[in-house]
Design a protein that fits this description.
The protein is built from 12 helices and 9 strands. It is of the alpha/beta class. The protein has a 6-stranded parallel β-sheet with strand order 3-4-5-6-7-8. Helix 6 packs parallel to helix 7 and helix 7 runs parallel beside helix 8. The longest helix has 17 residues. The chain is globular. The protein binds 3-hydroxy-3-methylglutaryl-coenzyme A and magnesium ion. The site of magnesium ion has 6 residues, from loops. One of its GO terms (molecular function) is lyase activity. InterPro entries: Aldolase_TIM, HMGL, PYR_CT. It holds the Pfam family HMGL-like.
Length: about 300
């Protein structure tokens, strides 16, 4: 049955801004993260400790973490693809990190330059050190409903990688429809197959909105009892230079729907929409979120 409350993992400062064609100033990122915390979000993915040659947009993550106004009860996780990333994250005093695998071999190679099996081997020492330091680790699986390079991705592969991440010590797995190609029945069947193996409470949704299906897919999966959903304020992402990619489900759209369903999120929609307008105006655009556009026109 549908959950009574949903925990939203805000990924805009990371998944959104990693796709910007230009470099976003540290102060702009810090203002965004602080505004998101002010709107009531309690999980704000704030950057990545990845190779600056691969993703230059996240090269300033240590500075961002040093300058945000850390609030009690709010976590500011970052991506760490390897031990080097975790060591840098620990030096920044993080309380949580995320490792990211894929259900598609081709995507794994393009994204982190290794096979799925190699990536899991690389994550083992990351999980061990994180555990020793009392740092929680989230796991991502990308391409759960399709891959830009390989096309179809078998559900069995999504389940297998998810189970491995949990067995290694991730507290939850976030299922990434990286290119937003999924539709509700397929999304629900995939999420059910994973939740049946790792548990509903360890299953999270991370849907991109490329084909406008993200909200419908989330609604379908909520019926399974899944209660953690990733979203990006203003639907950040979707850089004009990244072919085929689009932003995550917009947090405003998610909160509006959940408010209407009577599902608690703890997020103040007006404050959230203000944060979305501020960051998109700093980027020279308007929010991709329909809800944000409607609220701005009122
Ligand atoms: P590689 O080139 O195979 O790694 O990249 P390497 O170990 O040979 O290192 C190459 C250079 O990077 C070296 O520097 C390392 O020191 C440095 P050099 O000696 O050439 O000067 N390096 C690092 N620097 C800083 N932090 C680190 C780090 N590691 C190595 N942690 C690697 C392998 C994984 C590093 C690379 O492929 C990488 O950084 N990939 C990141 C890609 C990425 O961030 N993608 C976006 C996030 S995933 C995503 O968006 C999907 C998600 O949203 C879910 C969904 O939507 O599906 C999560
Ligand atoms: Mg993503």
């Amino acid at each position: 049955a549908r959950p009574v409350s949903v925990r939203i993992v805000e990924v805009g400062p990371r998944d959104g801004l990693q796709n910007e064609p230009g470099l976003v100033p540290v102060a702009t990122k810090v203002a965004l993260i602080d505004a998101l915390a002010g709107a009531g979000l309690t999980m704000i993915e704030s950057g990545s400790f990845v190779s600056p040659k691969w993703v230059p947009q996240m090269a300033d993550t240590a500075q961002v973490l040093a300058e945000i106004d850390r609030r009690d009860g709010v976590r500011y996780p970052v991506l760490t693809p390897n031990l080097k990333g975790l060591e840098l994250a620990l030096a920044s005093g993080v309380e949580e990190v995320a490792v990211f695998a894929a259900a598609s071999e081709a995507f794994s190679q393009k994204n982190i330059n290794c096979s799925i099996a190699e990536s899991l081997e690389r994550f083992a020492p990351v999980l061990d050190l994180a555990k020793a330091q009392g740092v929680a680790v989230r796991g991502y699986v990308s391409c759960v409903l399709g891959c830009p390079y390989q096309g179809e991705v078998p559900v069995a592969k999504v389940v297998e990688v998810s189970e491995r991440l949990i067995a290694m010590g991730c507290y939850e797995v976030s299922l990434g429809d990286t290119i937003g190609v999924g539709t509700p029945d397929k999304a629900k069947a995939m999420a059910r197959a994973v939740a049946d193996q790792i548990g509903v409470a360890r299953t999270a949704l991370h849907f991109h909105d490329t084909y406008g299906q993200a909200l419908a897919n989330v609604l379908a999966c909520l019926e399974l009892g899944i209660a953690t959903v990733d979203a990006a304020v203003a639907g950040l992402g979707g850089c004009p230079y990244a072919k085929g990619a689009s932003g995550n489900l917009a947090t405003e759209d998610l909160v509006y729907m959940l408010d209407g369903l009577g599902v608690d999120t703890g997020v103040d929609l007006d404050a959230l929409a203000r944060a979305g307008r501020a960051i998109t105006s700093a980027l020279g655009r308007t929010p991709a979120s329909k809800v944000a556009q409607a609220l701005a026109a009122k």
